[in-house]
């Protein structure tokens, strides 16, 4: 029978079919953070249960960690310090590998897992975090779960999993200069809506997707959850295979293992006559840089556009919150803060894009601009390439890795009324600080905002370089 890639991944990990809609699904890898794991461990301890396969779990301190550049990081907030020390104690007790607060490779889970070769095509990867959809970029089924499910996963390495429906989004055409995967995914979310993929696993395909680097694909799959998707997938191709081999020396160095892996990965695609429940087609060739104007990631328009009419009460409320009026152009809007980082756009290619845009320019007066790399490895690489030095010379703050101002659970919090150009994934009310306003955009666009002090069409600055 013809199958979608999604069904192939589910079927190869199904331990038991529970009923028509639910299976018991095996997880190759379970990732954890300090934020969603404490109650799960407490539950295990209450029942006297152990972790079934500790080596198939990995934890990191990510959400509450301070990012100030001190050599040794001390978590000042007592509750946050307790979360981190609890994670350490639980990982020690259960024999689970941990990227601890001062570990050189610590970072956001979705940045560190692929860079350490933990994600390979065909895997099922689960984490108590919604952006686990990121791993679809490598042909792995990743999705987020809640705390009670984390407990079940630790105890059994399985999960009761409700099957999703299949959506295919085909995007053809070449991305124009100055646009990125971030613009592509913001455009898709704006078109299908923040609930448009609810209940579906989305498979992305088409020539635009094929031309994206693996890191750009991470951005795309990461944000698919902002359209409500329960997973995102891209069938592994040569780009994905090369990324995985480069990050998995053990696999690349073992000829037998590598041959078996490659043979398996070649089977990971949707059969030509596989049936999708819904299909969309988009064209990337007319894409412009996209900016959000509201408080939901689907409230977005091209930077050349204007704030739309509020179509309903929630859009009216969004306009009130963001202090914008229908008909106002987005371009030229003054910002006070720039945040570059997160599991969406805190990778090395994102930072390269930023320095490409700023060139010799400096952060505009009155703007505070912060770069928080997604992981210790990204930070090291950026320092090695001279990116960090350029950022600092331009007036950016160069921070230590973590989620930081993506959700402001540490001390990187915006003051009320502050308007921020942000490379993150959620512009919800209060996400970066109570009363703070978030405009989602690409790293290149955030860099343009940093040096001009306003929302700016990055294509103009790039044209100046040419
Ligand atoms: C804290 C965590 C549960 C949450 C998520 O699941 O995504 C966070 O990472 C976020 O981005 O809002
Ligand atoms: S960087 Fe942001 S989106 Fe990603 S895991 Fe952290 S808080 Fe969530």
UniProtKB/TrEMBL annotation:
It catalyses: (2R,3S)-3-isopropylmalate = (2S)-2-isopropylmalate. Coiled coil: none annotated. It comes from the Bacteria. Keywords: 4Fe-4S, Amino-acid biosynthesis, Branched-chain amino acid biosynthesis, Iron, Iron-sulfur, Leucine biosynthesis, Lyase, Metal-binding. InterPro entries: 3-IsopropMal_deHydase_lsu, Acnase/IPM_dHydase_lsu_aba_1/3, Acoase/IPM_deHydtase_lsu_aba, Aconitase_4Fe-4S_BS, Aconitase_4Fe-4S_dom, IPM_dehydratase_rel_enz, IPMI_cat. GO terms for molecular function: 3-isopropylmalate dehydratase activity. Pathway: Amino-acid biosynthesis; L-leucine biosynthesis; L-leucine from 3-methyl-2-oxobutanoate: step 2/4. CDD domains: IPMI. Pfam families: Aconitase. Residues 8-453 form the Aconitase/3-isopropylmalate dehydratase large subunit alpha/beta/alpha domain. Its cofactor is [4Fe-4S] cluster. Its EC number is 4.2.1.33. Catalyzes the isomerization between 2-isopropylmalate and 3-isopropylmalate, via the formation of 2-isopropylmaleate. Heterodimer of LeuC and LeuD. PANTHER family: 3-ISOPROPYLMALATE DEHYDRATASE (PTHR43822:SF9), HOMOACONITASE, MITOCHONDRIAL-RELATED (PTHR43822). This is 3-isopropylmalate dehydratase. It comes from Massilia niabensis.
């Amino acid at each position: 029978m013809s199958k979608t890639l999604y069904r192939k991944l589910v079927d190869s990990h199904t331990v038991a079919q529970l009923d028509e809609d639910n299976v018991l699904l095996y997880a190759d890898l379970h990732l954890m953070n300090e934020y969603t794991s404490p109650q799960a461990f407490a539950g295990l301890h209450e029942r006297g249960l152990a972790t079934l396969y500790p080596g198939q779990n990995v934890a990191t301190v990510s959400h509450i960690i301070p990012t100030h550049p001190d050599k040794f990081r001390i978590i000042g907030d007592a509750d946050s310090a307790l979360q981190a020390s609890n994670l350490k104690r639980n990982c020690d007790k259960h024999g689970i590998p941990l990227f601890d607060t001062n570990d050189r490779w610590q970072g956001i889970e979705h940045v560190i897992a692929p860079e350490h070769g933990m994600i390979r095509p065909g895997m099922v990867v689960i984490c108590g975090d919604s952006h686990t959809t990121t791993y679809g970029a490598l042909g792995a089924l990743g999705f987020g779960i809640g705390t009670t499910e984390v407990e079940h996963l630790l105890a059994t390495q399985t999960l009761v999993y409700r099957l999703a429906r299949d959506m295919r989004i085909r995007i053809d055409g070449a991305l124009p200069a100055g646009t990125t995967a971030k613009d592509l995914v913001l455009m898709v979310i704006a078109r299908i809506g923040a609930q448009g993929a609810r209940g579906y696993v989305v498979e992305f395909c088409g020539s635009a997707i094929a031309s994206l680097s693996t890191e750009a694909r991470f951005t795309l799959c990461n944000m698919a959850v902002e359209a409500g998707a329960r997973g995102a997938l891209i069938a592994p191709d040569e780009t994905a295979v090369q990324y995985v081999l480069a990050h998995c020396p053990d696999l690349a160095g073992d000829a037998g293992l590598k041959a078996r892996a490659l043979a398996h990965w070649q089977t990971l695609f949707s059969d030509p006559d596989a049936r999708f429940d819904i299909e969309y087609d988009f064209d990337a060739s007319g894409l412009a840089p996209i900016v959000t104007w509201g408080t939901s990631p689907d409230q977005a328009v091209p930077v050349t556009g204007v704030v739309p009419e509020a179509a309903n009460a929630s859009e009216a409320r969004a306009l009130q919150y963001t202090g914008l009026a229908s008909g106002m152009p987005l371009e030229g809007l003054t910002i006070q803060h720039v945040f570059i980082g997160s599991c969406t756009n805190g990778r090395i290619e994102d930072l390269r894009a930023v320095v490409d845009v700023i060139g010799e320019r400096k952060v505009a007066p009155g703007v505070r601009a912060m770069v928080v790399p997604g992981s210790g490895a990204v930070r090291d690489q950026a320092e090695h390439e001279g990116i960090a030095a350029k950022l600092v010379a331009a007036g950016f703050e160069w921070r230590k890795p973590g989620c930081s101002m993506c959700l402001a659970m540490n001390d990187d919090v915006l003051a009320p009324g502050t308007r921020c150009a942000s490379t993150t994934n959620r512009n919800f009310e209060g996400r970066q600080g109570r009363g703070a306003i978030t405009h989602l955009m690409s790293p290149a666009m955030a860099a343009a905002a940093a040096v001009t002090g306003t929302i700016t069409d990055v294509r103009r600055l790039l044209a100046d370089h040419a």
